[in-house]
């Protein structure tokens, strides 16, 4: 019995090793094909230290828009060195009253840390339970993969946060834009959201939707 246990232990150990990375990194090659697992690898002979560094998060994003907010992503392939590593970053800038509307990242969980201001953040579980928290400078919050969540500037001045994702390509779908910023027929939106025709057309007009 003890020998059988050792055999199973060795098999499981070998199996885990076989799925481990066989190369140090896979810097994204945006010119190559993309698969569900990420971008093709850049020729190692062409990889430089610049592929592992990103300076785009040092500048504030433009918040002169309908949501009064900006997201500056550091995902693959823009941050090529993250490809295949299971990590990426982003910067959130929120002007007064700014909001990152209800959205989801189908490919990753998210961790947020507030650098400036006050942010009301929350997510909704698959059981429709709401987890809501007011975050101040230095506070952090995590958002589980695939769940609807949001961030709202609830302070008096601008707010700044940095976020990290558990994927180099976490994906993004913003709920209001998914419903009202495309050509999904209004009658279908009304039937699936219980909103009136007037409300749907008003929101489509605001967000640029048609039909």
UniProtKB/TrEMBL annotation:
Protein name per UniProt: Cupin 1
UniProt KW Magnesium keyword: no
Keyword line: Apoplast, Disulfide bond, Glycoprotein, Manganese, Metal-binding, Secreted, Signal
Source organism: Arabidopsis thaliana x Arabidopsis arenosa
Superkingdom of origin: Eukaryota
Keyword rRNA processing in record: no
GO molecular-function term, one example from the UniProt record: manganese ion binding
S-S pairs: 26-41
Binding site for oxalate: 105, 110
